[in-house]
């Protein structure tokens, strides 16, 4: 029984030694192992394995493929470049303007408030609020820029301001009207990756899609690729059937009318 255990233990040790000899351990100089693994995983074929432990990669692949994958790893293992990511919105924007008009007469301190049609709260006292709105179509191009490191994630903010009329009564009972602007801010997350003179942009609506250094492809909105310095169309802004403004990244929906396109350009930061 004891000799059988020794035989099994020896076989297990030989198996581990053979696996260790077959696998290549590659030490990275600049990049994190998880980051390189995530970028290289789509290149792996059936039976090939790649793992990471800190700044080391463990590669299990046939000799010919191992040499090819090592070359790709050397291309990825470079010092992170500082990038300038510029964002532009271009297209037809519907600008809504709201107006508030206060009129009527006050008798006895009571007030009546309505939109369009008067409604009396107390006899002899009436205040009418009349609202009006107009729309105009204009060409729009707004841009912003943020600095990011190659392979790191940043938030690209897309927002607009909307006028909201308000009404309140002062200490003397007189009505006071005005307009305040409410910011409607949304956006998406982007991670640029350099490949020589080309850049790949991974875009998602949630930071969770990137899951630290790795990537959750199920939550990824889209990936676009182009030349460094080229404007890339990554999505658009439109309105759904209820009139709500919606940001679409990488996909289009038949029930949303796009009014603006979102473009991103990546260049080396000076």
Structural account:
The chain is of the alpha+beta class and 270 residues long. It has 2 domains: 2-76, Ribosomal Protein S8, Chain: A, domain 1; 83-97 and 136-268, no CATH class. It is built from 3 helices and 12 strands, in the order H-E-H-E-E-H-E-E-E-E-E-E-E-E-E. It has helices spanning 2-22, 33-40, 63-76; strands at residues 24-27, 49-53, 56-60, 82-105, 126-149, 154-169, 175-195, 198-204, 220-227, 231-239, 245-249, 257-268. The strands form 3 sheets. It has a 5-stranded antiparallel beta sheet with strand order 5-4-12-10-11, with no helix packed on it. A hairpin with a 5-residue loop joins strand 6 (154-169) and strand 7 (175-195). It is elongated, with a radius of gyration of 30 Å.
Structure summarized in a few sentences:
This protein has helices at residues 2-22, 33-40, 63-76, and strands at 24-27, 49-53, 56-60, 82-105, 126-149, 154-169, 175-195, 198-204, 220-227, 231-239, 245-249, 257-268. It is α+β, with helices and mostly antiparallel strands and 270 residues long.
């Amino acid at each position: 029984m004891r000799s059988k255990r020794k035989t099994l233990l020896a076989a297990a040790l030989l198996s581990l030694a053979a696996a260790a000899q077959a696998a290549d351990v590659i030490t990275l100089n600049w990049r994190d192992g998880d980051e390189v693994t995530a970028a290289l995983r789509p290149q792996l074929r059936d039976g090939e394995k790649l793992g990471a432990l800190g700044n080391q990669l463990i590669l299990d692949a046939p000799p010919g493929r191992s040499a090819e994958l090592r070359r790709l790893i050397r291309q990825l293992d470079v010092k992170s470049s500082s990038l300038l990511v510029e964002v532009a919105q271009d297209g037809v924007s519907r600008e809504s303007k709201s107006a508030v008009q206060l009129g009527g007469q006050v008798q006895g301190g009571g007030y009546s408030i309505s939109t369009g049609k008067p409604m009396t709260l107390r006899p002899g006292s009436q205040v009418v609020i009349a609202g009006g709105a107009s729309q105009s179509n204009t060409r729009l191009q707004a841009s912003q820029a943020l600095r990011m490191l190659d392979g790191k994630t940043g938030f690209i903010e897309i927002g607009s301001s909307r006028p909201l009329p308000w009404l309140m009564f002062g200490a003397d009972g007189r009505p006071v009207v005005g307009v305040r602007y409410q910011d409607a801010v949304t956006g998406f997350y982007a991670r640029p990756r350099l490949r020589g003179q080309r850049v790949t942009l991974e875009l998602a609506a949630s930071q969770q899609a990137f899951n630290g250094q790795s990537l959750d492809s199920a939550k990824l909105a889209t990936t676009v690729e182009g030349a460094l310095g080229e404007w890339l169309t990554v999505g658009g802004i439109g309105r759904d059937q209820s009139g709500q403004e919606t940001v679409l990244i990488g996909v289009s929906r038949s029930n949303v009318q796009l009014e603006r396109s979102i473009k991103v350009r990546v260049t080396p930061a000076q």
